[in-house]
Amino acid sequence: MINSKLPHVSTTIFTVMSDLAREHGAINLSQGFPSFSTDDHLKSLIKNAITNDHNQYAPMQGLLSIRVSLSNLIHNCYGAIYRPDDEICITAGATQAIFTAIQAIVHPGDEVIYFTPAYDCYEPAIQLAGGIPVPISMDVQNFAIDWDLVKQTISNKTVAIIINTPHNPSGTVMSKEDMLCLQKLVVDHGLICISDEVYEHIVFDDNKHMSAASFEGLKERSFIIGSFGKTYHITGWKTGYCVASKVLMKEFLKVHQYLVFCVNHPIQVALAEYLKTPKHYLELGAFYQRKRDLFLSLLKDSMFKFSPAQGSYFQLLDYSSITNEHDVSFAKRLTIENKIASIPISVFMSNDNTKKLRFCFAKKDDELIQAANILKAL
Length: 378
Known about the structure:
The protein is of the alpha/beta class. It has 2 domains: 13-31 and 283-376, Aspartate Aminotransferase, domain 1; 61-280, Aspartate Aminotransferase, domain 2 (3-Layer(aba) Sandwich). It has helices at residues 13-24, 40-51, 64-78, 94-105, 122-128, 147-153, 176-189, 216-219, 228-231, 246-259, 265-274, 279-282, 284-299, 327-337, 365-376; strands at residues 27-28, 88-91, 111-116, 132-137, 158-164, 192-196, 222-227, 240-243, 314-318, 340-341, 343-344, 356-360. α1 packs parallel to α14 (327-337), α2 packs across α11 (265-274) and α4 packs across α10 (246-259). The longest helix has 16 residues, at 284-299. The N and C termini lie far apart (48 Å). Belongs to the class-I pyridoxal-phosphate-dependent aminotransferase family.
């Protein structure tokens, strides 16, 4: 018999809800991927890369050209300098980058703090490293972090804190004050920060993305994770990145080289060129804000309650005025009976029933209109 290293892990809710959506022909606003196409120019760049025979192993750390482009992007956006030669690594998606960072620094018995509801890869990655996951629940009304509670939770076994901003699933964005509180705790206690910033370019209204790269104390002690898939509507290409100080990156690369060694070569060639045009990422917030506003404008007279997402491409809807059902049961019923799939967020936190569902608005306009009409009729 196998002694499972993850005995309590089952099929993720994303797979469950997407499978249910396919089975019942529902509009799938559950899993976080765009239903529209990426830029034809980017498609042509990858075709050219393949035609020009960039089809063998790329350098382990990633092509120098894409690392240079990424270094320029980070400097332009956050004023931070990361050296392409020893502080940047291209990864097989952001999840691989998160897993690699955790394996690089977490030893058996080490504690890692993270905030729930949380992306579901954090906990098993900590467990596989022999670490102890220490979840701290965010306020389910406004998804604020109680930094006094975080300070009280830090122990002599704590080695790292994982943050995610813009936040999935709530769509909230950490403030400058949040980042300063985090920085003080990280520096004072000698911790490492793993900053999941995959939605960094998807921020709305007057909000601003606060990258760990913008805070000197955090920059020196952080692995910062990004996603080309989220930025350029290419989630299936599974390409992301990690930036970190030279000392941290040295440990990251030790794990990375034996986990995947290198990442898809033609995709790197294409992205290196595509990154040279800043509007491709600078215009992303306005692009998704229009979709968020369209979706919410159609729901303004519905029985759902909501605060507009500050970032990411997810919107939470509170259904407490409609039913007392558990969010998992309600999400499944909506999929089967009303033909619209969402994600219940209680599965990502200790709160057993938040009465909130997560909807992805990275979809074609006609899908959002059709989905909103279904929800408005409830």
